[in-house]
C-alpha cells in the first residue's frame, strides 16, 4: 500500500470529467517537517504526464500518532485542489502478464478483418510492409500488443509500453497516437505467429491483402539498377558518385646532383711563396635540398600552359619606336708574307 498525493486545477473541476494531474510551478510539500522530494512538473509541453507525489516514506505508521502535512505554493493566481489516496501498487511486469493472459485477438479474426477491409472491388489493394520492431525502443517485439480502438495491424511491445507508462502516464498508442486504456490492450495472435515463424534477424515482412505474408530480406530490397529502397541522408548525396583521381605531384628528378663530401685540407692558406690552389667546398645536404627544390619548381613552371598574350589596342602608329640605324661595316686588315695589305669588309 502507498499514500499518493494528487493535485489539479480547481477551476472547471467537476465530478463528471477527468482532470489531469498538475502541480504549481513553485511549491513545497512537507510531511512531519520533512520535505518531499518529487518531480512535480512531468514531461515538457505534455499535459497529464505528471505522476502523483509519493508520501509513504515520510508517514509515521503508529497508532494514535498524528501526521502533519504542509503545502505551500506561490507565484500563481490559480487555485489548486489536493487530495491524498491510499492505493495499491501494481508493477509493470504484473500488468504485462495480465495483458498476456486476459485479452487476446485470435489469428482468424485478424485475417478476416484484413479481407473485409480490402474487399472493395473499386480499390486495388496491395501488400503492406509490417515492421517486427517496437516503434519506441526499436528492438524486436516480444509481446505484440495493440488496442481495440486502433484500426492498424501494426503492433508494439506490451512490456516496453507498460514501462513507459510507469515512468510517465501517457496512454497514447505509439503507432497512431490515439488515446488508449489498459482494458483495450490485447495480444495479436496473428502478429505473434509471424514472430514465432521467423528468425530473430528478420526485421520486416510484407503482408498481402488476403493475410499471407513473406519475409523481406536485405538482398530483396535492392532494385534492379543496384540501388536500395532505404532512405539516404542528405550528406550521402555529396561527392558520392564523382570520384576525382588526384595525381602524385611529388617531383623526382632523374639526374640528381650528388657529390661525395670530402673533408677540407688542414690549412686553407698556402705557405708563403707557394702557388695558390683552389678550395672546392662541397654542397651540404641543405643546399642539395634547395637545389632539388629549385629544379622541381622550374620543371613545374615549364609544364604550365603559357598565359595568353595581351595586345594593347589603344596604341597608335605614331607611338611606334623609331627604326634602328643600319649596322656599320667592320673592316678587317690582313697582312701577307710579302708585306702587302688587303682589306675585307663584312
Would you give an account of this structure?
With 346 residues, the chain is an alpha+beta fold. It contains 5 helices and 15 strands. Among the domains are: 2-87, Jelly Rolls (Sandwich), CATH 2.60.120.780; 92-221, Zinc/RING finger domain, C3HC4 (zinc finger) (Herpes Virus-1, 2-Layer Sandwich). Helix content is 17%, strand content 19%. The strands form 5 sheets. It has a 4-stranded mixed beta sheet. Strands 4-1-6 form a 3-stranded antiparallel beta sheet, with no helix packed on it. It has a 3-stranded antiparallel beta sheet with strand order 3-2-5, with no helix packed on it. It is flat, with a radius of gyration of 48 Å. Mean pLDDT is 76; it is low at 231-242 and 336-340. This is SP-RING-type domain-containing protein. Residues 217-236, 289-346 are annotated as: Disordered.
How is this structure best summarized?
With about 350 residues, the protein is of the alpha+beta class.
CATH class of the domain at 92-221: Alpha Beta
Average pLDDT for all residues: 76
Q: Please, how many helices? A: 5
CATH topology of the domain at 92-221: Herpes Virus-1
Structural key phrases:
346 residues; Herpes Virus-1; 19% strand; Jelly Rolls; alpha+beta
Q: What is the fold's blueprint, element by element?
A:
Elements: E1 2-9, E2 26-31, E3 34-35, E4 53-54, E5 69-74, E6 80-87, H1 92-102, E7 104-105, H2 107-117, E8 128-131, E9 144-147, E10 156-157, H3 158-167, E11 185-188, H4 189-196, E12 204-207, E13 213-215, H5 285-303, E14 331-335, E15 341-345
Parallel strand pairs: 7-11
Antiparallel strand pairs: 1-4, 1-6, 2-3, 2-5, 8-12, 9-10, 9-11, 12-13, 14-15
Helix pairs in contact: 1-3, 2-4
Amino acid at each position: 500500500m502507498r499514500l499518493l498525493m494528487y493535485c489539479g486545477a480547481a477551476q472547471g473541476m467537476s465530478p463528471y470529467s477527468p482532470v489531469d494531474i498538475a502541480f504549481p510551478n513553485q511549491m513545497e510539500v512537507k510531511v512531519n517537517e520533512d520535505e518531499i522530494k518529487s518531480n512535480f512538473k512531468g514531461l515538457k509541453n505534455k499535459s497529464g504526464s505528471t505522476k502523483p507525489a509519493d508520501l509513504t516514506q515520510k508517514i509515521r505508521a503508529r497508532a494514535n500518532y498524528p501526521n502533519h502535512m504542509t503545502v505551500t505554493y506561490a507565484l500563481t493566481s490559480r487555485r489548486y485542489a489536493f487530495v491524498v489516496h491510499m492505493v495499491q501498487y501494481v508493477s509493470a511486469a504484473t500488468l504485462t502478464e495480465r495483458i498476456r493472459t486476459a485479452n487476446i485477438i485470435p489469428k482468424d479474426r485478424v485475417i478476416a478483418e484484413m479481407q473485409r477491409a480490402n474487399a472493395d472491388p473499386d480499390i486495388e489493394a496491395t501488400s503492406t510492409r509490417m515492421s517486427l520492431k517496437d516503434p519506441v525502443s526499436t528492438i524486436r517485439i516480444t509481446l505484440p500488443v495493440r488496442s481495440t480502438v486502433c484500426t492498424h495491424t501494426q503492433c508494439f511491445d506490451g512490456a516496453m509500453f507498460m514501462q513507459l507508462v510507469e515512468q510517465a502516464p501517457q496512454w497514447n498508442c505509439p503507432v497512431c497516437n490515439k488515446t488508449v486504456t489498459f482494458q483495450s490492450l490485447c495480444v495479436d495472435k496473428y502478429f505473434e505467429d509471424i514472430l514465432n515463424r521467423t528468425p530473430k534477424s528478420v526485421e520486416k515482412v510484407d503482408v498481402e491483402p488476403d493475410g499471407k505474408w513473406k519475409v523481406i530480406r536485405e538482398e530483396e530490397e535492392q532494385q534492379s539498377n543496384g540501388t536500395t529502397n532505404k532512405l539516404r541522408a542528405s550528406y550521402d548525396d555529396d561527392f558520392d558518385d564523382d570520384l576525382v583521381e588526384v595525381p602524385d605531384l611529388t617531383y623526382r628528378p632523374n639526374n640528381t646532383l650528388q657529390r661525395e663530401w670530402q673533408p677540407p685540407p688542414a690549412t686553407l692558406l698556402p705557405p708563403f711563396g707557394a702557388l695558390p690552389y683552389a678550395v672546392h667546398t662541397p654542397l651540404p645536404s641543405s643546399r642539395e635540398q634547395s637545389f632539388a627544390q629549385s629544379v622541381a619548381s622550374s620543371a613545374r613552371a615549364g609544364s604550365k600552359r603559357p598565359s595568353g598574350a595581351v595586345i594593347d589596342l589603344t596604341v597608335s602608329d605614331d607611338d611606334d619606336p623609331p627604326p634602328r640605324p643600319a649596322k656599320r661595316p667592320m673592316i678587317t686588315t690582313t697582312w701577307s708574307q710579302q708585306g702587302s695589305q688587303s682589306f675585307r669588309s663584312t
